[in-house]
Amino acid sequence: MVIFPVIILFYFVTLSPIQNYYQRSAKRTINYHFEESRTSEDNTRYLIIETQNGLVQGKLTNALNKDVSVFLGIPYAEPPISILRFKKPVRKKSWSKVWKAKYPRPPCLQPKLSYQVPFNLWTTNLKSSEDCLYLNIWTPLKLTNHTRERKSVMIWIHGGAFTDGSSDVRYYDGTILSAFGDVVVVSFNYRLGVLGFLNLNIEQVSGNMGLYDQLLLLKWVQENIHHFGGDPNQVTIFGQNAGAFSVGFHIISPLSRAYFNRAILQSGSPLYPQVSEDLNFYFERTNKFVRKIGCLEEDQMLQDKPEQVLDCLQVKSAHEMVKLTEDMFEGFQPPFGAMVGNEFLPANPYEMIRDGNFSHLHDILIGSNKDEGSFFLHWTFPDLFTLDNPVNFTQREISSLVLEAFRSLPPPGPKLISHFFIPSNL
User: Fold this and answer.
1) Is the CB of residue 32 less than 8 Å from the CB of residue 154?
2) Do 136 and 167 form a contact (C-beta atoms < 8 A)?
3) Distance CA 245, CA 235 (A)
4) Which residues in the chain show pLDDT less than 50?
5) Residues 35, 57: Cα–Cα separation, whole Å
6) Pairing outcome for strands 99-100 and 66-75
7) Strand 55-63 to strand 45-50: parallel, antiparallel, or no bridges (unpaired)?
8) Maximum C-alpha span of the chain
9) I need a labelling partner for 330 at 20 to 30 A (CA). Which of 74, 115, 140, 369 fits?
10) Coil, helix or strand at residue 292
């Protein structure tokens, strides 16, 4: 699912019967620094509020005859560049001037993929950047110095196979959802691909940094969302594709549990088979990458000198590194992604789900769309599945295509998927 299912989410988030749990949150004191102004050029209304890091300026807009306060491009972490590259995110330092949160910031660096997305579903006009850890907020309250009302909070995690994607996609604009659902909506960027998921098997670079970005964002929301009229005790995280994978990981991760109490998984699961726990397979790809970028000789192994490799990678061009990963895809399998083995995902997701430590969750909503997988046919077989000319296939041909499309998955994955579509093929 790509577009927010507004009506379902409105019911799911705001009409829960367990309201007594949230009454205690009203006791927290909110200190607003509020200021409203207009510009003579376009009559835009701006407002300034105070956060933990400093003053932030947003703007007022209107949707469905309701005022919505919009804040775009608030930093939640220091730029992950230079010596912070590949490492866990660092909290953003406070600023002394007013932060202009009036326009979206660039998406995180990502490769230029070979497939063409129909109808430009996930495109953005912004160029990607390594400095990308920013968030956006839409709140249905016209904030004033006297605002005390609290709204439910929904945090959107974008998809893209942990390789591409952005919060700055027109379908992810939270204005309508905030106005119609009467909720505070948050979206954000997190590191992708090699910059977000490289694992050198050392403490400083142990993988899953994109997920640690998400974790820091959840903490930021807990500490700051009351300034925007949100209730930190009534937080729902939701996402699609890799965003749904991420939601599932946060459900089972011991590091995330304190920061939300509802979850929505749209077309994704933490059990997706690309979560790697095979270090030998992973380091084979990582060795290939660091050799291509010139940080390891052909006769050397990453495991023998990981610190020297890290020093080398931190001075390389980020754009060059990302570009080198473009030809490292194997079917649906991106070269870098979520891994099992560090404190965020200490065990296989199957085992963590089996243990069932979900007492922090009140509700989970899981869904998918009929025939949504057909989108990927054009990606995987662009010459066979064009957008203009439908083609008929025999059962044997379909079986071969399914096996080919999922060849990168570990067995018996491809065969089980083929059996799902063609039961006689097992």
Assistant:
1) no
2) yes
3) 18
4) 1-31, 34, 40, 116, 119, 425-426
5) 9
6) unpaired
7) antiparallel
8) 70
9) 369
10) helix
Question: Pick from 179, 73, 93: which is nearest to 134 by CA?
Answer: 73
Distance, first Cα to last Cα, the chain: 29
Do the beta carbons of residue 425 and residue 399 sit within 8 Å? yes
75, 174, 195, 209, 249 from 60: Cα distances, Å: 20, 13, 35, 34, 35
Residues 73 and 99: their CA atoms lie apart, in Å, by 9
pLDDT at residue 266, as a whole number: 93
Tokens 């989970």 sit on residue: 364
State how beta strands 363-367 and 262-266 pair.
parallel
The residue assigned the tokens 């000319």 is: 389
What 8-state DSSP symbol labels residue 106?
A: P
Closest CA to 341 of 207, 197, 190: 207
pTM: 0.84
65-76: b (≥16 Cβ within 10 Å) or e:
ebebbbbbbbbb
The pLDDT value given to residue 187: 97
In the numeric block, which tokens belong to residue 231?
A: 């209730």
Q: Is the dihedral of CA 86, 87, 93, 98 positive or negative?
A: positive
* pLDDT given for residue 274 in this prediction: 63
Cβ-based neighbours of 370, under 8 Å, separated by 6 or more: none
Report d(CA 156, CA 99) in Å as an integer: 23
